[in-house]
Every structure is written in C-alpha cells, then in structure tokens.
Amino acid sequence: MDYNLLILLGTAIFCGFFVQTVVGFAGSLIALPILLIGLRLPDAIAYISIFYLFSSISLVYKEWKYIDKNVIKKLSITSIIGIIIGITVLTFSQPILLKKALGVFILLYVAYVGVGKIDIKLGSKGTVLFGVLGGFFAGVFSTGGPLYVIAVKNTVEDVKIFRATMIGVLALVTTVRLPTLAVGGLLNGGHLKMSLIIFPVFILAQFLGGYFFRKIDELFFKKVLLGLLCFSGIALFF
User: Fold this and answer.
1) How far apart are CA 40 and CA 231, in angstroms?
2) Where found in the cell (predicted)?
C-alpha cells in the first residue's frame, strides 16, 4: 500500500470537505491543489468525484422535497454535454496547460466571491450556455458550482429551494461524471479502493465541519479561505 498517497489523499479530502461543510463552497478548489502535489489531474478529479458522490447521496436524501425538479430537467441535457466535453479535454490536454487553467479559474472564482457574487440575468439561451459551461468545468476540474449558482438563481428565488436545488444539480453532475470518467479510463477500481480506506476521514471532516460551523466566525473564516485560494491559484498558474 502506498502510504504517501494515503496521507496526501486523507489530507486533501479532510481539508476540502471540512471547508465545504463550514462555508458551503470551495471544497474541490481546496482539495485539488493539495492532490496535485503528488497526483495527475485526472486521478485527482477521480478521487474528488467519488467523495462528492458520497456527500450528494446524504444531502439529496435530506433535501429531496425542496428540490425544484423542473430546474434539474432543464439543466440535465446541457450539463451532460458539458461534462462529456470537459472529460474529453481532461483526457487529451497537456497537464501543464490544465494546471494553469485551473489557477486562472480559482482566481476568477475568488474575484467572483470577493465582490459579493454579482447577479447576472440570463434568458433561456443564457441558461443553456451556463449549463454547458457548468458541466464543462465540472468535467475538467470538478468545480462547476459557481456557474450553476448563476443559472439556478435566475429561476429559483426562495433560499431554501435554491439551496436544495443546487444540491440536486451538483448531485446530478456527480452522478453523470463518475461513469463518464470510468468510460474514459480515468476512474478505476484502485481509486474506489483507496477512497473506501479514506472514507472515515471524509466522515470526520463533515462532523468537525458541522461542529465548527456553530463555533467559528464564518466571515473571518471565509476571508482566510479566499486568501488561501488566491495563493493556490497564483501558485498553480506560475
């Protein structure tokens, strides 16, 4: 057994899903740069996708009655198209270019969150475009969430339904991404075996994230998080 991989994977999954549980975003953007210290980008995406599936099953079960199924239907076809394109790019592109692109994506995400998530009004064509783009970035970097936030906000106003629908959309994306990765040869039994070994770390991250969510200054934590993301984005780009 590769103990270095276990330590790297455990650290990345713990940090990523702890942050995801505390502030509700940026889990994969935290985990990816850590995983890329010792893994190829396709392997890193495979591991993150598996743990997002674990997370999605629990969340969808809890939020099912609040999910706007019409929004899910509207984004499903465009997301599938985007995911297939994204995983094709992930399979055949040069790793160094993808790392630089990930760095740019992280910096843009920090800018987007830092200015307060500017509202963007979309028509039907815009929603289709953001569905494809969300699927594309979910396929390449497992990070299509910000684009889906923009698309869903244009349809859903109630905060509780919005949150539940985002959980449903991201669960759909994860469910489509895993078999597509497997068909593309980017996910295999080795990834599943290592993920099951690390699964208790994932549970611990969610438990501690839920505990600290009630204890820490969320605004301060978000500022520190955005600083870390900015640093990792610059490091990946250069």
Assistant:
1) 20
2) Cell membrane
